[in-house]
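pasting input
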Amino acid sequence: MKHSNLRNGWVGGIVNIFLILLGLTGLAGTLLQGWLGLPSPAFGVWVSLLGVVVWSAARATKASGTQSWREALAGGALSGLLSGGIVGLLVGLLATLDAGSVEIRQWLVQLTPEAIALLTFGVAPWLATLLVAGVHALAGLLGSALYFAAITYQWQASVKGVLQDAGHSISQTQVYQRIAGHPSATTFAYAAGAILLLTAPLYLGRYWNYTLGTVGLYVILGLGLNIVVGMAGQLVLGYGAFFAIGAYTVALLTAPTPHGIMMNFWLVVPIGVILAALSGVVLGLPVLRMRGDYLAIVTLGFGEIIRILLKSDALIEFTGGPRGVRAVGGPSLFGIKMNNEFYFTYFIIIGIILAAYITAQLQKSRVGRAWMAIRGDEDVAEAMGIMTLKYKLLAFAIAAGLAGLSGVLFASRNKFTGPEDFTLLVSINVLSLVIIGGMGSIPGVIMGALILKGLPEILRELSDYRMLAFGALLVLMMILRPEGMWPSTRQKMELHGDEEKAETSEHTEPARGVA
Amino acid sequence: MAMLELHDVHTFYGNIHALKGLSLTVDAGEIVTLIGANGAGKSTTLRTISGLQRPRMGKVIFEGADISRVPASEIVRKGIVQVPEGRRIFATLTVRENLEMGAYTRDDKDEIAATMAHVFELFPRLKERIKQTGGTLSGGEQQMLAVGRALMARPRLLLMDEPSMGLAPILVEEIFSIIQEISREGVTILLVEQNAHVALSLAHRGYVLGTGKITLQGSVEALANNPQVRAAYLGGV
């Protein structure tokens, strides 16, 4: 009867209630029903609810540090019973209300009579309460038993051992050794990867080409913003504005209305990139003298101003106003029209490679070192002979240019663009993906884009909860991996430097440095 | 002719009049110290010389040329390098990278390597920690790194802002003996200190800064015997 059992029971129960009230269990039910081809969503509902209980009972057993089977099981059952009691009361209450023909949906949209029936096993409310409590107690028992068995019989170690043995025996086989030992093995692996990447658009179909293309556009945006935020350390919020400038450049120069210029796409690409980069310099000159929060707020304002200008009736003759620009031109080569998702996937891949190459080269160069110094301490960078304004402007211009490139591809691929494509959410998404992926890291940006723009597509059914899941993910990330999913080694050192410091520093006086 | 001259310099932070007509001179090869209370304008003086802060009036003359309107990055190239207050080393960069950053204005690879070897002679502790990040160093080691980083730019005039701050007495002694060695190697030093005791024992000449103005000046012996200085900065001993 440890304190930890009670606490985990409570937490398990409350998490369960949260899941039920928000209808997330119902969601898990329908998802699993669809994926596994089950006849009813009940399985998914109960798996998600009891999963929480199993998990929290296992945690409770771990926290209690008990050595005996009896204590572990009793504790697990107790925590299960406690959460079951709480949830059971709620289920009983819901069932009673529902039976009394109260419209619960008035307050909680997700709780349809069908959803409630799934929770009550279709029996009388009081019986349902008892049943829920009982099922939870069993789940708690299961959780603690699983955890206890795992530590007692050292499952973790044996699983590891099996995997290692398997890996070892594979690496010992002749075939493996001949392949891996061959001098061109790595080249071959890269070539295979490249071929896979290059042929992917061929068999992916329209929908996935479109989705992955969107992810790719965000990768380009992320790589650009990463230069400013991750490498030069300047917090910029209205980055979407440069994306908009690229998109509108191609739209206004290639569409039949409002101007009817109808220029060649390939000519417009550099124009869009240069215009965006120039606007970066023009904005940067006055703004980059500011630091930190001020810079963030001013750039945020700039982003909104661009969107509102594009939308305004005053400029309707020039920008097409709130309705946007239709029939944006696409590329063609040797008379082949290339304006579909399929070709654009390739263009976007080329854009990513270009952006990643530029970023990687800059990172290694003198410019990259100047950015690193500015990020560390602007005053000191200046005092060491680095022209901080020049390098900040350069970072800004390159980032804006890449956003312009992404914007050109975006508008041309969609054959349409309008002011609502460039809401603040675009800027926030890009910033989030840079942070989630790991600031300053190229693979991190790619990973962040996949998670932020790709995952919601895979979990289409989650769409209503996208923002909820998104927020929860961000909070979790910042707690568990503040350095990002795939951080640069430097970023890792920065955030876990304390542990290192404790081990290596032998002096007791406080170490004063600049983070 | 003096290496560095400040003529009636006025520096403002917004509306705050921080330096109110400050004048001083530093001759080549000297160690000159600037002592004064908190907020007297010691750091502002250094920032004005190194170009991080522009004077509103007055002249800063280095080797005969007015540098009061020259950007900070250019002043470093002229040979004036600052060791900032509170060390401010790059916590996420390694010791080696910090030092390399100090040589940003130079591009002669071999000579940079030679300077680094020299810095390691002065501070053997830094060599032991060459791969550690700046943030993991102790306070004393960080101060050594800050000095080493400044030396990497091959200064002819080194501006040092409170190198003793927050250090144990034994480390203060170590740092100051190295400052003397740097001076013997021909680097001119302008040293700002609150620890007047140590500063006056090491320098050739000194200035006492009131609020934004020089109130006393002279040889360190004269200053150390001055009753006002004794009362205000040497604990009345």
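fyi The longest strand of chain A covers residues 325-326.
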